[in-house]
Amino acid sequence: MSSNQRFGFLVGLCAYFIWGSLPLYIRAMRHVLPQELLAHRVIWSVPTALLLIALAGNWRDIRAAFHWRTAKWLILSGLVIGANWGVYIWAVNADRTIEASLGYFINPLVSVLFGMVFFTETLRPAQWASVAIAAIGVAIVTVAYGHVPWIALFLCMSFASYGVIRKKMAVDSRAGFLMEVVVLVPLAMGWLAWFAQQPDGRLMGQGGWDIPLLMAAGPITAFPLILFALAAKRLKLSTIGMMQYIGPSIQFLIAVFIFREPFGLTLAIAFGFIWLALAVFTVDSMVGEAKARRLARAARPV
């Protein structure tokens, strides 16, 4: 592994570790309303994004992101990812972190289906099999919970939709992220202004440590996105594909062993199907990529 690849692997691990550990931060701020935490996550992401753009010196990309042809899609992706953040924060505080982690486990499979629908990508038989196995797992989860796991389905569908929209946009990740949170800032500030006027309202939590912790919501949101972008440029797609399970795995372990959320036999069986589906999907992806490399080498002129 080259030094460039090692750097990519390290920053990729950091990104997924931050994403996986996010429930600990959200639970530490449990005394703050989910809407309040979401509003601060949006607001403090703006100066963070501006700082990262300034360090990279790519101000030109901001103009491209704010051009209407690109901005209209980034407005939509901003609303989608904002809804994703809000539901995730609520789920962690409602003791449903296991269900939230399920959403990110099945997200790669939903992304494959979206690729077929929106980008006319074809699915190999093993990929169809992994989707079917995952569907069985979701059905078992429905039985275990006694209702459709809407949190998991919303999180995976919204994040996959976000990926589809961003795939269409040839824009720098930092500039695109800035545009997305700028769209959400009026909603966030409007809600905070209304909340501050309520009898128990406030602007910065309960003061004290809440102030820096709420301000930290911006870097916690922006940094892993940037680290992921750095990793994606340096690593193979198969490596990134394997690493994407680190986040939900950490979330799952936190939910079971730290938050002590109930995890009985039925849920264990359901997650077994999900993990089997991911194993089939991952192995097939690795085999497909290896085959593509062999064909590329065979077609290369001697």
TrEMBL record:
It is a multi-pass membrane protein. Belongs to the EamA transporter family. It comes from the Bacteria. Residues 7-142 form the EamA domain. It is found in: Cell membrane. GO terms for cellular component: plasma membrane. Keywords: Cell membrane, Membrane, Transmembrane, Transmembrane helix, Transport. Gene3D superfamilies: 1.10.3730.20. The chain crosses the membrane at residues 7-26, 38-59, 71-90, 102-119, 126-144, 150-165, 177-196, 211-230, 242-259, 265-287. This is Chloramphenicol-sensitivity protein (RarD) family protein.
